[in-house]
Specification:
This protein has helices at 2-14, 19-42, 48-74. It has 78 residues and is mainly α. The relative contact order is 0.26.
Length: 78
Amino acid sequence: MGVTGLVLGIISAVVFCVWPLAVGLGLLAVIFSALGRGKAARGEATNPGHALAGLICGWAGILLGACFGLLVLTTPYW
């Protein structure tokens, strides 16, 4: 779960120009990373660092995608 969250978080942060995809992948990254951190806390997984990095990258992807989407939607076209 932690590695999946990390991969999705990195992808969402990289493709922020496609802002709907970035926000969706960022949300999935946050969900998977939170589940991965829970498993690591219970001792079922050994990668809490990957899950934390996925959580951070997922939130960064959501933030970048939302800011870029806001910029695209509010920029006037002359």
